[in-house]
Specification:
alpha/beta; FAD/NAD(P)-binding domain; Enolase-like, domain 1; 3 domains; 5-stranded parallel beta sheet; 5-stranded antiparallel beta sheet; 23 strands; globular
Length: 486
């Protein structure tokens, strides 16, 4: 027989990742009585298996690449030795440094009660945690997502890796095959190649990073191939055959010929699927779409009017920054009865390859520009900082409308994510290219790229026939005023 908790909560948050933590803290700051329920560990994928460990590994790989390229800058560093064990220790230290910020203790200090256990709805208004009924007025679903695993014959015959299990590696793989050339596959594939693995990336589509501008995809392809990565686009996996404890052979095909690729480790990075299967959402009246994501309205409310959802399980862009902002929005809507709506128009994204790819807003793809937009580009050969650094494999590109408003941006280059921040604000606030062009930017920086693009746009507009006529008219009026004055 179920027991009932002595406390009744204004908001029950299910899931202790980015969306859940930010949502719970937001609700508590508004004076609500909040409980956060997490069955494993607070912090979510970002802390334990995503952003923090992957960017720490990428930093080590970047250092190795810089050392290997030092001779280009007149520096002789001698032979390079990679200590993979120490690299993985460094990954764990980074997690340990950040973990206290997301810990149950930090949540309790912020006014959030934390329960460890498995939360499950047993009715439209009934929530249980390991058999204990938890009374609540409103709930926020934030159970996130997990790596998707394709149905490939023989895949279960080996202990394949995912972005969750990769961090248990004790030794650098000699031969690593990566299934998937999205952000995760390209980031990790390049990192392991720079550390010394023989890496092959297999992608069923015709190009890597297929959601990004094709020129950005091409820039990253050139870079990862220069790092030694073999890329097989337009190939699908047919089967896996085990040859050892971790090793095996992957059969792939392009539709005409088949190829066998031997590996010591296989990393599956083909996307993510929502964690919605064991929360009793059917009993709660929460509808899922045909992909398994929770259906939400623009206010992040589910089909159960007492339950909201935020983060990766909603089918919205699966980024930590999106999860946090949406978690706060959903919690304030639930607790205060507000009707604030999500805004996906200015959602920034960054792929942390070398070069980085950062984009926001409307596509900048020349063949796919929405009506009324035009593309303006500056190659980074024209950016002085890129020239001094010897890193010209990049560009800055804007999509602007007829009135000069910035609708979208793509930046490819070092620290492109930092450069994108200003452009994200520009897209969100519908700023015009003249607003950025008239703003003094520090020199020399990679931010010169987008700034020069806006100047190009202004010069093009000033040279248009209508603008020239207006300029001549203004000049004539000024000369007339001068004569009258004198």
């Amino acid at each position: 027989m179920s027991r009932t908790s002595a406390l009744s909560y204004d908001l029950a948050v299910i899931g202790g990742g980015s969306a859940g933590i930010v949502g719970a803290k937001t609700a508590a700051s508004l004076g609500a009585r909040v409980v956060l329920i997490e069955r494993e560990r607070t912090g979510g994928d970002c802390l334990w298996t995503g952003c923090v460990p992957s960017k720490t590994l990428i930093a080590s790989a970047h250092s190795a690449a810089v050392a290997h390229a030092a001779s280009r800058y007149g520096i002789d560093v001698g032979p390079i030795a990679v200590d993979f064990t120490e690299i993985m220790r460094r990954v764990q230290r980074a997690i340990e440094d950040i973990e206290p910020l997301d810990s149950p203790a930090a949540l309790e200090q912020a006014g959030v009660n934390v329960l460890a256990g498995h939360a499950r709805f047993t009715g439209k208004g009934r929530l249980e945690v390991d058999g204990v009924v938890v009374p609540y007025r409103r709930a926020l679903l934030a159970t996130g997502a997990r790596p998707a695993v394709p149905e490939i014959p023989g895949l279960d015959s080996i202990p394949y890796l995912t972005s969750e299990t990769l961090w248990d590696l004790q030794h650098l793989p000699g031969r690593l095959v990566v299934l998937g050339a999205g952000s995760i596959g390209c980031e990790l594939g390049q990192a392991f190649a720079r550390l010394g693995s023989e890496v092959t990336i297999v992608e069923g589509l015709e190009r890597i990073l297929h959601r990004e501008d094709s020129d950005a995809s091409e820039a990253v392809l050139r870079s990862i191939q220069a790092d030694g990565v073999s890329v097989r686009t337009g190939h699908r996996a047919v089967s896996v055959t085990a040859t050892g404890d971790d090793s095996g052979t992957l059969m792939i095909t392009d539709g005409e010929t088949t190829t066998h690729i031997a590996f010591d480790q296989l990393l599956v990075a083909v996307g993510r699927t929502p964690n919605t299967g064991d929360a009793g959402l059917d009993a709660a009246g929460v509808v899922l779409d045909d992909r398994g994501f929770v259906v939400v309205d623009p206010m992040l409310r589910t089909t159960n009017k007492r339950i909201w959802a935020a983060g990766d399980l909603t089918g919205h862009p699966q980024f930590t920054h999106a999860a946090g902002v949406h978690g706060s929005l959903a919690a304030s809507n639930a607790v205060l009865g507000l009707r604030r709506r999500v805004d996906l128009r200015a959602m920034p994204r960054v792929t942390f390859t070398d070069p980085e790819v950062a984009a926001v807003g409307a596509t900048t793809e020349a063949d796919d520009l929405p009506d009324g937009l035009r593309q303006i580009t500056r190659d980074h050969r024209d950016v002085d900082r890129a020239v001094t650094d010897g890193l010209i494999n990049g560009f800055s590109r804007l999509a602007v409308d007829a009135r000069g408003r910035i609708a979208g941006a793509t930046v490819v280059g070092p620290r492109a994510g930092e450069t994108l921040a200003e452009l994200t604000l520009a897209v969100r606030k519908r700023l015009r290219s003249r607003d950025l062009a008239a703003t003094i930017h520090p020199y020399p920086t990679y931010a010169d790229g987008p700034w020069k693009v806006t100047i190009d746009d202004m010069q093009a507009r000033l040279s248009s026939p209508s603008t020239r006529r207006a300029t001549r008219l203004l000049g004539a009026l000024a000369r007339l005023r001068a004569r009258v004055t004198t």
